[in-house]
Design goal:
By secondary structure, this protein is mainly alpha-helical. The protein has a domain of 118 residues: Cell wall hydrolase SleB, domain 1 (Arc Repressor Mutant, subunit A, Orthogonal Bundle), CATH 1.10.10. It is 35% helix and 6% strand. It contains 6 helices and 3 strands; from the N terminus they run ααααααβββ. Strands 1-3-2 form a 3-stranded antiparallel beta sheet, with helices on one face.
Amino acid sequence: MKRNQLFRRMLAGFLLMVFLLPQGILFPLVASSGAVGPTVEAPKEAVVQEQRTTVADSKRDERGVLNDQQPEKAAFPVSESDLQVLAQTINGEARGEPYEGKVAVGAVILNRMRDANFPDSIPGVVYQPGAFTAVSDGQINLRVELESFRAAKDALKGWDPTGGAIYYYNPAKTTNKWIWSRQVVLRIGDHLFAY
């Protein structure tokens, strides 16, 4: 793809996010899993507080699930629209995967934000051309299940089941030959997570 075309696509994605996302036009959401009905804003409890913490600050049970007695703190301060983009990407990419796999997909997005080879924002990572199948095929626009919001919040709180992976793929579905060259660190559900 030529540089000019890439720039135009990135600019178009950015403009869509800036003008349509805040109004809830681009990504309508629902309050419950699988429900058919009117679309609503992201659940208020899904908005992450803008406090900083580290993974070491979080207490988890033996399954790695956050202890509800811990105050909610975000490893990444995010806006409500960033949370929506993260939850929608998790929903589109990991629908049908175990909960840990959904959190892992969110963690990969956040790990890419930390990596100098990727954009430094959630929308920048998600809408990078060719980065996520859910963006390319429109699954990012499907109604978001509440579990995807919970997974996004857990990833934002610092839970990373992948240990820092920046890639994942489904070996039964991928057509990208390059991804097979990446070092796989673990499998969760149908996804392999890699560096």
